[in-house]
């Protein structure tokens, strides 16, 4: 089981309110895609779920129990920037997590324990399509291959929850499509609960079973820091009317106009 519940969660940094009034229940096996303007607290939500941050107010529950206040192997994460170790080969990148979990002081396994861990690493690399690149270093891999490696690093630990922070934003369209298919396959095979941030609405509707849109619930031009973002749409996949795309896009663009950065979302790219 990996049911996640957020109950009246707020996150503040000093006087800056980033998130407010988050109430959410996500069942085991759901794939939640998250969209919204830059600066609306999407990555902060992932940090809360990972355990890097704790709520200022409210509670986060995992299967009815308080979420551990530090990262653990039950939660894996993949970032947009390739989070792999450049000085380690592909197989050693995946093997490292298993070694550190079993031998946290030395970070090394020997004999049968090492053979068992290496077998697990090789199976995961086979699953992500990197079995022919075991002895290569990350600098020798393409961007898509590095993201496959980052996925293998996370999934070899058998997490219940996978957190993806714009994992495909830097990839070319063709490679991005391949990665979509890979993530969907791994999600189904491993029974994962997934939270994925994306700036591509079409990607959000295509991959997810549920789309969450973040935006500020209240606005004060004189004191924008006093109010945080919340969930303004919580939609099941299948609600893809063009008018809905346009409404969400307009909301995001209005917020972007008040914040640095641009999303570059276009409804003409999203279909009818």
Give an overview of the whole structure.
The chain is built from 7 helices and 10 strands. The chain has helices at residues 42-50, 90-102, 111-127, 143-155, 173-190, 201-207, 242-256, and strands spanning 4-13, 16-26, 31-36, 57-62, 65-66, 75-79, 161-165, 193-197, 210-216, 229-236. The chain folds into 2 domains: 4-74 and 159-269, P-loop containing nucleotide triphosphate hydrolases (Rossmann fold, 3-Layer(aba) Sandwich); 85-158, no CATH class. A hairpin with a 2-residue loop joins β4 and β5. α2 runs parallel beside α4. It is globular. Mean pLDDT is 87; it is low at 260-272. The protein has 272 residues and is of the alpha/beta class.
Instruction: Using the coordinates above, name the CATH class of the largest domain.
Output: Alpha Beta
| Total count of strands | 10
Largest β sheet strand count, sense and barrel closure? 6 strands, mixed
* Tally of structural domains: 2
The CATH topology of the largest domain is given as Rossmann fold
The gyration radius over C-alpha positions equals: 19 Å
Q: What's the SSE pattern?
A: EEEHEEEHHHEHEHEEH
A few lines on this structure:
This protein has seven helices and ten strands. It has 272 residues and is of the alpha/beta class.
Write the layout of secondary structure elements.
Layout: E1 4-13, E2 16-26, E3 31-36, H1 42-50, E4 57-62, E5 65-66, E6 75-79, H2 90-102, H3 111-127, H4 143-155, E7 161-165, H5 173-190, E8 193-197, H6 201-207, E9 210-216, E10 229-236, H7 242-256
């Amino acid at each position: 089981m990996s049911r996640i519940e957020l109950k009246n969660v707020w996150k503040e940094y000093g006087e800056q309110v980033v998130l407010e009034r988050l109430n959410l229940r996500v069942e085991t096996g759901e794939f939640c895609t998250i969209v919204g303007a830059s600066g609306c607290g999407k990555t902060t939500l992932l940090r809360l779920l990972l355990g890097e941050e704790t709520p200022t107010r409210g509670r986060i529950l995992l299967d009815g129990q308080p979420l551990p206040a530090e990262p653990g192997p039950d939660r894996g994460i993949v970032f947009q920037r390739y989070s792999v170790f450049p000085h380690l080969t592909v197989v050693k990148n995946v093997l490292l997590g298993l070694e550190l979990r079993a031998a946290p002081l030395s970070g090394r396994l020997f004999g049968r324990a090492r053979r068992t861990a290496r077998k697990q690493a090789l199976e995961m690399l086979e699953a992500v399509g990197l079995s022919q690149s075991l002895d290569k270093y990350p600098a020798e891999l393409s961007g898509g291959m590095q993201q496959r490696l980052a996925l293998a690093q996370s999934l070899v630990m058998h997490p219940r929850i996978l957190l993806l922070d714009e994992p495909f934003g830097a990839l070319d369209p063709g490679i991005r499509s391949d990665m979509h298919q890979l993530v969907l396959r791994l999600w189904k095979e491993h029974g994962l609960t997934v939270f994925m941030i994306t700036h591509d609405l079409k990607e959000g509707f295509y991959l997810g079973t549920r789309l969450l849109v973040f935006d500020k619930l209240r606005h004060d031009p004189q004191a924008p820091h006093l109010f945080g973002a919340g969930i303004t749409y919580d939609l099941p996949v299948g609600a893809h009317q063009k008018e809905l795309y346009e409404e969400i896009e307009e909301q995001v663009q209005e917020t972007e106009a008040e914040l640095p950065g641009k999303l570059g979302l276009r409804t003409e790219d999203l279909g009818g």
